[in-house]
Amino acid sequence: MVTWHLMPGNHDHLRENGLWDRLSRTNLPKNVHLHTTPGAVKIMDDDGTPVFLLPAPLPHIASVDDLTGYMDKEATPEGAIRIGMAHGSIQGFGSDGEASNYVEPTRADTAGLAYLAMGDWHRQVQINDRVWYSGTPEPDLFKRPPGSSGTLCNGGTALVVDIAGARATPTVLPVEAGRYRWHQVMKTLTEDSQIDLLEAELRALEPDLSRVVLDLQVTGTLSLAGRKRFEERIIHGIGAAVCATRWQDGGLVLEPTEADMDDIDRSGFVRVAADRLKVMADDRSDQERARLASLALRRLYLEHLRQAGVS
Ligand SMILES: [Mn+2]
Fold it and tell me: Is residue 163 located within the same domain as residue 235?
């Protein structure tokens, strides 16, 4: 059975009558342990070697002091395996808006820790041989790893850490833990034919599309026929295949072609109206009017296809 050691972080920090008080009053399963105060706690014996956990729980959302500082002087029996647990930022590592609750990157060495388990950053990051961020077990935001050219977002991972002895270098094995796979796809469409390519690309994101949570950001220009195809193949087709979606297609501009206009009508008053809408849609001097005209033109197009029995 897995034994769980839980500790307050910044978003669920310690406070009176808060989450942790409520948790401790419930009948927690025997294999769940809460660590709400700093200090070495013996958690097991490994063939006679005592194993101590040194947690650094967060008493506030943000602390100025390095809460792992106490570990340097915290006594444990000679030869004991010391495992630190902290939540915050190791400075000097991509402070992309995540830097708070600073933890000294050399803490594992100064405090004689076999391993320091870090939380807060959602992606998996190795700081050094003994200090890792495991990453969140499920992704929870559309954020791709820095420098990544792929579409997969952070999170959904865990670490299996094997500690052979008090000062042995731990063996760290990244494992996939997440049920869902979050992908962020950004695309510029300039030709209708690219819709089929985009569909193929999205269908190839994962072998099991029902695990995919998709953020699709599309910009570019499409004809009315292309826009219709985009709705059918991507928004409805892909939307039905994946678990959840976020569409951002506000940057997709409609550029009706002559064929689109002929599909609406070749002549007569409807065509006259469509032509006038097209002129308004192309006139960028009035953005709001252009947007409404474009919307109206799209609806007119779809309505006429529907009435003609094409769609
Ligand atoms: Mn956090």
Answer: no
Residue 152's nearest CA partner among 121, 175, 124, 182 is 182
Tens digit of pLDDT for each residue in 209-242? Answer: 999 999 999 999 999 999 999 999 999 999 999 9
Residues within 5 Å of ion ligand 1 by Cβ? 9-10, 120
Q: Which of 82, 79, 86, 87 lies closest to 43 in space, CA to CA?
A: 82
Structural domain range at position 130? 4-141+157-176
Q: Is residue 240 situated within a structural domain?
A: yes
Cα 42 to ligand 1 centroid, rounded to whole Å: 25
16 and 63 inside one domain: yes
Residues 268 and 129 in one domain: no
pLDDT tens-place string over residues 1-22: 899 999 999 989 999 889 999 9
pTM (2 decimals)?
0.79
CA distance 246 to 228: 19
Q: CB of 95 within 8 A of CB of 110?
A: no
